């Protein structure tokens, strides 16, 4: 009798586990597409902060170029994507990932939008470990400091001025925190240099030397 009870309880437990697994699997299948859609919307929203809809008519999420740690100047530790914005057939901007490895508390992950004319469309810090109240001012949610990059290029300011004011450049630093803004300024300049050297890949142009840019 005891053996039959144990067997029956084991079968009931197994049936319950199977039913639960089927329910979870069904819920996953039903919500999988919805979750993917929401993630895509969130990603697109972040990109549109840098290159607004008025500037392009394509889906940047569907126009990408893979880029990895071997990309000179970007400082990446893993493979990521460059997103391109088009108006008709013309590429008007590229959003390029970069990592500033010389932050005060470690890596600072960024994306920098570069227009086809070589100017900055926008800079956003995606992840960092900088000191709250000091270095975290590179985050737009904490400060509008990154907005000073908008419209800048390798000609504005001149190369020697691509630095924080403490280093005789034009960009502000933060009281008590110079290392963090210095790292972001340098990373942004390297991305602009990368964009210039890879105009063929990014924008279908040739670089100033008349050679198609290669990634």
UniProtKB/TrEMBL annotation:
<keyword id="KW-0285">Flavoprotein</keyword>
<keyword id="KW-0812">Transmembrane</keyword>
<keyword id="KW-0813">Transport</keyword>
<dbReference type="GO" id="GO:0022900">
    <property type="term" value="P:electron transport chain"/>
</dbReference>
<keyword id="KW-0997">Cell inner membrane</keyword>
<feature type="modified residue" description="FMN phosphoryl threonine">
    <location>
        <position position="178"/>
    </location>
</feature>
<dbReference type="GO" id="GO:0005886">
    <property type="term" value="C:plasma membrane"/>
</dbReference>
<comment type="similarity">
    <text>Belongs to the RnfG family.</text>
</comment>
<protein>
    <recommendedName>
        <fullName>Ion-translocating oxidoreductase complex subunit G</fullName>
        <ecNumber>7.-.-.-</ecNumber>
    </recommendedName>
</protein>
<keyword id="KW-0472">Membrane</keyword>
<comment type="function">
    <text>Part of a membrane-bound complex that couples electron transfer with translocation of ions across the membrane.</text>
</comment>
<keyword id="KW-1278">Translocase</keyword>
<dbReference type="Pfam" id="PF04205">
    <property type="entry name" value="FMN_bind"/>
</dbReference>
<keyword id="KW-0597">Phosphoprotein</keyword>
<dbReference type="GO" id="GO:0010181">
    <property type="term" value="F:FMN binding"/>
</dbReference>
<dbReference type="GO" id="GO:0009055">
    <property type="term" value="F:electron transfer activity"/>
</dbReference>
<keyword id="KW-1003">Cell membrane</keyword>
<keyword id="KW-0249">Electron transport</keyword>
<dbReference type="InterPro" id="IPR007329">
    <property type="entry name" value="FMN-bd"/>
</dbReference>
<keyword id="KW-1133">Transmembrane helix</keyword>
<dbReference type="InterPro" id="IPR010209">
    <property type="entry name" value="Ion_transpt_RnfG/RsxG"/>
</dbReference>
<feature type="domain" description="FMN-binding">
    <location>
        <begin position="103"/>
        <end position="195"/>
    </location>
</feature>
<comment type="subunit">
    <text>The complex is composed of six subunits: RnfA, RnfB, RnfC, RnfD, RnfE and RnfG.</text>
</comment>
<keyword id="KW-0288">FMN</keyword>
